[in-house]
Structure formats: C-alpha cells, structure tokens
Amino acid sequence: MLDDDGDLTTQVDQSELARIDQYYPAGVREGDTEHVALWSGLQSVGTVDLRATSKLILRGGDTGTGITADVIVLQETSASESGNLPRLRAPVSPVQNTERFAPVTARFVRFTSFETINSNQHEPCIDELEIYAVSDPSVNIALGSGGVVATSSGNYSEIGIHQLKHVNDGLYGNSHSWISNQQGGGWVQLELPEATEIDRIVWGRDRDGKFQDRLALRYELSVSPDGESWTTVARSDDRFAQGTPFDPLQTLLRNQPDDIPTDLPAISAELDRWQSEKARLETPPLVYGGTFRDPDMTWLLRRGDPEQRVEQTVPAIPAFLLLKSQSNHGEIQPAAPSLGSSSAGITLEQERRLVLANWIASSENPLTARVMVNRIWLYHFGRGLVDTPSDFGVNGTPPSHPELLDWLAGEFIRSGWSVKHIHRLILNSATYRQSGRIAPDAATVDRDNRLLWRFPSRRLESEAIRDCMLAISGELNLQMGGPGFNFFKARGGLDGFPPVQDFKPEELRRMVYSHKVRMEQVPVFGAFDCPDAGQSTPRRGRSTTAIQALNLFNSSFVLDRADNFAVNVNAISTDPRLSVSLAFLTAFGRSPSENELTASIAVASRHGLTALCRVLFNSSEFLFIP
Q1: Residue 506, class by beta-carbon neighbours within 10 Å (0-12 exposed, 13-18 middle, 19+ buried)?
Q2: pTM of this structure
C-alpha cells in the first residue's frame, strides 16, 4: 500500500500498489494451492509518485502468518522512462562482471570500491581488470605487457600473490590478484599508452570461482582522457542486491524495448540446447583402463608368514594337470623369443598370460573341451552329461554318457573350437528332436530320465519368462548394448530396495541388461530361481512355490503386459473367435482346439480379453519347454 501523506490514520489517500501471495504464481489469487512459497524474484508495481512524506505499507491478509519482504527496490526514473520497467542488471559476481557503456575516449580507467561483502570485513580484491576498445573488441588492451601502468590508493602487499602488478598481468585467479590496503574501500587505476575509444570493462574477484570474499559490492568505474577530468561510466547502483534471486531471461525480457519484437524465450531455449550439445561434445568418453608392468617376485613362505621367505617361486601349472608335451615341471615361461620381443609390444606379464591361455585351449588338454560341451548340453537339455558342471573332480558326479562326452569334446577340438558346430550337432540329433511324452515302461527303468529316453520338460528361466511376455505384448525393446536398467528405485540405504512399478519404454529391454544387486531378489521374477549375483551359480535350481504363482498372476507387471497383449489383439480383430485364435497363435504358436476355443470365448466375454491373456501367461504351455 502507498500512503501518500504519511498519516496512517487517514485512509482516503491510501492506494494498493500490489497484492502478492507467495502461495500463488504472479497474477493468480484464487484456487487450490500447495501452500509452498513460489516466489523467486521481483514484481514490478509500475511507476509511483513519491513525496517526502509518503510511506509504503506492508499489510497482511487473513492467513495469520507473518509479513516478510526480502527486498524492496526503489529506482528513480526520468520522464522519458516513466512507462518502462526498472532496468536492473545481475548481482555482482565474484567470478566475472562486464560493464558496457557508450563509447568514450579515455587514457585513464579507475575502479573505486566503496563497500565489500560481509560489511567491509575485508579489503577489496580484483584478480584482473580488463579494458576493450571499440576498434577491436576481442583484445584486452589493459595488459601490463602492452605498456599499461597500474597505480592504486594503496596495496595490501608488495610481495607474494597479491601485488599491484597482478591486476593487469593477464593471469586469472586468487593467486594472481591485487588487494587494496583499506577495508571495504580503495581504488586501482590503469593508464593506457595513449587515449583510446573504449566501450567495455571486465573485472572479477576470482575467475577460478574458488573465493567469494573481498568482493566489491558498491563500486564505481570512471574514465579520464588526461587524469584530471573524470566521467563515471558504470556503477553498482543498477545491479540487483547481492543474494537477490536472479533470472537472466526475465531480466532480458524486462529490459527489452517495446519496439523490438524478438522472441527471447525461444532464443534462450535454443541457446541452452546448443550449450548442452557443446558440453556433450566436449565430454570425452571414459573407459576403465590400466597399464601393464612386470610382475613382482613371488616367494614360498614358511607357514604363510610374509616375513619368513623360503625360496622364490615361478608361475606354474599344477603338476597333475600337465600335458604330455610339457617337460618343464609346469613352469609358465615364454613360448617363443619372438613373443617377448619389443616389436611384438607384449610385456612379460602379457606373455605369461598368453602361455597360460595356450595351455587352457590346447588340443592336448581335454578338460577345457569337456567342460565347454557339457555346459552347452546343459543349456539345451536343462541338465549336463556331468551333473556338476563346475566340478569334474572327485567331488563331482560321473558323466551319465562318458563316451558321448569324450566324443563331443573331441569333435569340439577338431572343429576348431566352434561352438556353433556343437549347437548344430545337438539340435539336429534324434535325442533333441524326440517327443517329451512319458513311456510307462521307460519310466519304470529310469524315472529321472537320466538316460534321455524322452526330451526333458523344464520351466523357462526367469529372464526368458519376462522377455517372452514383453515380446508377445509387443513391448520388448530390442536395443543392444549401452547402460542397463534398474529393477529398484534405490540401492540400499535408508530406503532399502523399493521396486520399480512402472517401467519406461527404454527400460523394457531384455532382462540380461538389468543391473544386478547382490543378495537382493529381482521383483516378481526373482522367485523363479533367478540367481541374486551373491555367489556363483553353475546350475540353477528348479523349485515350485506358491509365491511363483501369486507373482505371475497378481503382479502389476504381468497385468500391464496382459492388457497390452489384449490391446494388440483387438487392434487386429474384435471378433471373439478370431481374437481368441490370434491370442493362442501369438502365445503358443498354434491355434486353439474347439474345447479351448469355446472356454476361452466364454472367459473373454465375461471378464474381458485381458483376463484371457493373463491366463495364457500363467499356463504351463507358456512357461515350460516343450
């Protein structure tokens, strides 16, 4: 409110200047509010005529809260500017401040400080004072190396990092700066070799941004052609007060002349986009890298005590694993002089690793091939020829078909260690292509199907179940490589591991790209014997629990996939028979039988196609192979 005569007992002369409620955006006074302070700047109340007796009044509303005003700015305006908003500049910055003014011819430039931050607790500091000419706006003409002489009202020090010569030495930062000898005040002056037309001065307290103390808040920049007559070209009076929230875009909008119809918000958004793109292009890709060096000497220690060395040892292969062609007691030595030559670029450590790798993949070493083909067999049949895929020793189980294992290992080596060749052999075999039906006579002899008299039926892995649901619902993101996705909103801490409920399209990728959290099961699909990455799991368990059925039938993830599955089917056909047949064909790769079709149409008619799609996701035919 404005009280024109300053007498608060009379209200006839009182007028409202602005109505501000921090709970609402500017210009809004009614409606629901979050009761959160929203203001972060200044609101102009226009031009107001003030007299010596006038008073400004802050009057509270009916909220019962206190009345606060962080900043009230009064700026005098001329008659020609009476219709414009106050043109205030950004607050003083400790990093860099640019002063622009109409071109003026000057030989002397003086910076005078009247007040520093923290109530004049320290002397003002300037790391560099720069002057730019109209003729060449890209060159700083204030450098001492160009013959410019610096003087001052007094210096904090004549030695060390704060000297007068540092004010125009071309070096930024606190370690190359000038400090006055007066708390809050003082001046520094630059004398050019000759009078020059200038229009810009740049200064800062610390261009490195490490120090914010000793900053001049109230200052003045003056120029003179002869050192006697001075003209003020810039001062701090038209800047926002220190600490006032400042929006550069809003300031440009406020200062924009009415006769220039420039779309500043659009220009600002475009500038932000290009600055973000520039920062992205300037950020180099990071990799995990290391350097090789010669390995340290290894010693045989008495009772494992590092202080009791017995004799030096060399890297070696265990004697019982030696190949027939090895006669060097298993010591891993360079295989050939050429490998260690400087021309090959291989260090001793790399060479030792190469020798070890050649031993592992040697055609005379059957262990590697046996383990590999057993793993491939395990992934195709759910159970390896050796039931302990990570243990072929005395603690492991003997192979169910030893001759077959030996033949496959030999075939693997003869094919040049071709994994694809072994896949092709297995997939084209009669054992893999046989039916999974149970023969009572065979079941009596081999109930566990260890001899593979039928194809062993097994449930899909948890990853395959999730990926198949996404593929059938048409949502599977097939993007390869790149960063993975998370199943949890947070990883430990006070919040624990809250699961993600709604996945974005870029997160609906194959489960192999998910981030693994040790000792924490994946939501929904972790119940299907999905390893938690806490320890090595050579062979997954195959449990059957109630939580598996509950997760698969009631989880929001499955419900969303069933809903999208139904939407895709209905987009092709809304006819009950066609839509049910299409759902079966998509989920199972076959058409439904007449009984299935009749029952499914009844379910879809009564509960909707989404319910039927959820039933298909929970069926044994969907979850099991074959």
Answers
A1: exposed
A2: 0.53
**What single DSSP character describes residue 342?**
G
User: How close are the terminal C-alpha atoms of the chain, in Å?
Assistant: 82
Cβ atoms 526, 463 nearer than 8 A = no
Amino acid identity of 322?
L
- Please report which confidence band the pLDDT of residue 335 belongs to, taking 50, 70 and 90 as the band edges: very low
**pLDDT of the residue at 323:** 65
Smallest CA-to-CA distance from 308 within 298, 296, 317, 299 is with 299
Looking at residue 350, its pLDDT comes to 80
- Across 156-178, b (16+ Cβ under 10 Å) vs e yields beeeeebbbebbbbeebbbebbb
DSSP string, 315-334: -B--GGG--TT--STTB---
Give yes or no for a contact between 409 and 484, defined as CB atoms under 8 angstroms apart.
no
What pLDDT, in 10s, does the model give residues 396-437?
999 999 999 999 999 999 999 999 999 999 999 999 999 999
Please indicate whether residue 150 or residue 520 has the higher confidence score (pLDDT): 150
Query: Rounded to whole angstroms, how far apart are CA atoms 448 and 378?
Result: 15
List beta partners, residue 509: 477
Q: Tell me the CB-side half-sphere exposure of residue 468, using CA atoms within 13 A.
A: 20
Please give the pLDDT value at position 26. Answer: 64
What's residue 27's pLDDT?
63
The closest alpha carbon to 216, from 172, 246, 177, 161, belongs to 177
Backbone dihedral angles phi then psi of residue 606, each to the nearest 5 degrees: -85, -40
Q: What percent of the chain has pLDDT over 70?
A: 88
**Per-residue pLDDT reduced to its tens digit, 265-300:** 788 888 889 999 999 999 988 888 887 677 888 899
Tokens of 577: 């028979």
What six digits make up the tokens of 67? 């009345």
- Give the C-alpha separation, 129 to 202, whole Å: 6
pLDDT score for 363: 86
Q: How many residues does the chain have?
A: 626
For residue 257, pLDDT beyond 70: no
- Ranges assigned E (strand) in 337-487: 458-459
Report pLDDT digits (tens) over 442-468: 999 999 999 999 999 999 999 999 999
b/e sequence 113-138, b meaning 16+ C-beta within 10 Å: bbbbbeebebbbbbbbbbbbbeeeee
Compute φ and ψ for 3, nearest 5 degrees: -100, 110
CA distance 367 to 482: 35
At residue 327's C-alpha, the angle toward residues 322 and 328, to 5°, is 95
Cis previous bond, 440, omega within 30? no
**CA gap 434, 423 in Å, rounded:** 16
Q: Which amino acid is at 404?
A: L
8 A C-beta contact, residue 222 and residue 71: no
Nearest 10 degrees: Cα torsion 48, 49, 51, 57:
-20
- Residue 511: which of 540, 539, 538, 478 has the closest Cα? 478
The SS3 call for residue 287 is coil
Contact assessment for residue 426 and residue 380, using Cβ atoms and an 8 Å cutoff: yes
| Average pLDDT for the chain | 87
CA distance 587 to 566: 12
